[in-house]
Amino acid sequence: MARSRTGFWLSVPVYAAVVALCVAPLLILLAYSFFQVSFVAVLKEPTLKNYVRILGSETYRWLILKTFGSGLMVAAITAVIGYPVAWFIAKRVVAAKSAFLTLLLVPLYTGDLVRIFAWRMLLGAEGVINTFLMAIGVIREPIGALLFSSLATHIVLTYNYLPFMVLGLWLAFEALDDRLVEAAADLGAGATSTFRRVTLPLTLPGLVAGSLMVFVMVVGDYLTPQLLGGASGVTIISAINDLFGTAFDWPLGSAIAWTMLAILALAFAGAAIVISRSSLGKALAAGEA
Amino acid sequence: MIAADRAKDTSGLGNSPLLQGIAVHKDYGGVHAVRGVDFRIAQNSYVTLLGPSGCGKTSLLRMIGGFEALSSGVLELDGQSLDGVPASRRPVNTVFQNYALFPHLSVEENVGFGLAYRSLSKAEMASNVESALALVQMSPMAKRRPRQLSGGQQQRVALARAIVNEPRLLLLDEPLSALDRRMRKDMQIELKDLQRRLGMTFLHVTHDQEEAFALSDEIIVMNNGRIEQQASPAEIYRRPATAYVADFIGGANLAPGRILSVAGETAVIDTPLGRFECPSVAGLQEGDKAVLCIRSELLRLQAGEGGFEAVVTHTVFRGAEWLVEAKTQGGIVISLIVDEPEPPLVGSAVRLGFDPARGWIVSAPTEG
Predict the structure, then answer these.
(1) Measured on CA atoms in the order A129, A135, A137, A139, is the torsion positive or negative?
(2) CATH number for the domain whose boundaries are B243-363
C-alpha cells in the first residue's frame, strides 16, 4: 500500500504538467469556441454560432480542405521519395550509415527561416534556377510561378519534412529481416510479388508513422506558405492567427482550431480501426511487426 | 586420391544424380568461401553437409538455393544448369536457420505462400495446406501467428511451408540448432521419417556430427572451403579420407608417423607408439608422412607384454563406461573407453593395445 501511494505521489507532477500545459489550454480553447464577440468584448454566453459560421463559410471550408489536401499530398510525395532512400540507407549502406543519417538531418539543424530564404534564392525570378535556365537558353523570361506560388510552398514543405518520413521508414527497414525476402523468393515470389506480399506489409508501420508525422507537421506549418506561397499563402492556420490577432475574434478562432482537431481525431480513429481490422494490425497488436 | 574415393562411393547411387556440382567456387572479394568443389547428390537420399562454422557449407547451400551467385563452376539439377535461374524459379525450397516465417501472416497463410505461384484452385490450395500441416502435426495451430508458437512448432511450420511446394530438393540450413537437446532428438527422427515417406531429397547443413550420423544416407564433410570426403556415415567413421575427417568425426586418436612399407590395402607405419600394420587409404608410398587413427573404443587395457605404455591423466564417468585420457611416452594424448566398474587410477601407468586390423592410416595433413 505504502509503495503504491509513493508511486502515486511521484507521478503527480507528470499528470499535473500534462493537465496544466496540455489539457487545460485545449479546454479553455473549447470553451471559447462557444462564446461570441461583441465589438471588443468577449460575451461568455454559450452559442453554436461560430461552428455554424464555419460550416456555412465557403472560404473556411475551402481553407480547411486545402490544408488537409496539402498534408496528404506532401505525405504522399515524401513517401514515394523516402521509401527508396530509407531502403538504401538501411539495406545497402554498411560503414557510412551514421554519416548518411547525419547528412539527412543536417538541414534540420538550421532554422526554418534560413531554409526558407535559401529556397527563395533558388526559386526567385533572379534566383539560381531561373538565371541558369536563361543562361543556357532554355527560357527567355524567368518562370515567375517558381516562387510565391503553391508550387514553391509544396517543394519546400516536401524538402522540410522528407527527413521525418525517411527516419520512420528507415526504422521499419532496419527491423525487416532480409531472410524473409529470401524466403519469399525461395517460395516462388518474383520481385513485385515479394514487395507486395512481404516488404510493403512489413514496412507499413514505418510508412504510417512517417506519414502521420509529415501530415501533422505540414498541416501545422505556418511560415512556409506565408513566406513562399504569395497569394496562395493564406492557410487555415494563418486565418486562425489573424482571428486571434488583428480581427480579435477569439471565439471563431477557437472554433476553427477545434474543428481541425475534431477532423484529425476522427481521421486517426478511422485509420486506427481500419488498421486494427487488417491482418497487419493484428500482427502489430501482438507485437510482431 | 580423394576424388578417386568419392567416385567409388557414389558409384552405387545410380548414374544420374539429382544435383551435381562441378568445380563450384565462391569468393567474397578475395575470401574463398568455397574452393572449387565437386559433388553429386543422389535422388531420394538424405545428405548432410557437415563441417565447422566458416567451412563454406552455408555458402554452398545458398548457391544451391539461388541466393548467391557462383564465382565459377556449374550446378546442375536434373542435368540442367542452374546458372541464371533465380531462386523463385528453382524447384528447390529451403528451411531457413531461424525459420524466417512471415510474422504478418498466420500459420496457414505462411504454408500457402508458395502455392499462389502455381495454377491451383482455392480448394486445392486449402487442401494442400491442410495436409502439409497434418504431416507435421500442426493442424490445430493453423490460425495462429508465428510469434505465438514455440521454437519447435515454428520449425514444423517452416518445414510444412517448404514441402507443400513439392520441391525436387529440400535444403535445410541448420534447422535444429535453435532447439533444445531433447527436441532436437525428436525432430531428427521426424525429419528422417518425413524424408522417407515423401521420397524427397533432403540436403541438410549442420555442424553437429551426431545429427549427421542420425539422419544421413551420405555425409559430405567440408573444411576450409573444400570437401574432405563424401560417403556413408559408417564409411566416414571407419575409413576417414583425411586426418581432418578422422579428428572431426568422433575425435579419433591420431599418432603421426612415417610409412615403412605398403602392401596392397595395408601399410606399415612407424609411430611413437610403435610399428603397426594397418589398413590404409589408397595412394600412400614408402617414406610418406602419415597418421595412424585409432578410435577410442578400439583401445584396450592390456595385462601382459606388447602394446604401448601410457600414464592416465583424466578419467570421466559416462554412465555406461569410463572415458580415460592418457599420455604416451611420445607425448601423444590418447583417449580410450574402459568398460569396467572402476577406471585405472589417475597417475598410474597402463599398457594399451588394439587390433591393428581395425586401425586406419591416412596421409598427414599438408597444411599446418
Answers:
(1) positive
(2) 2.40.50.140
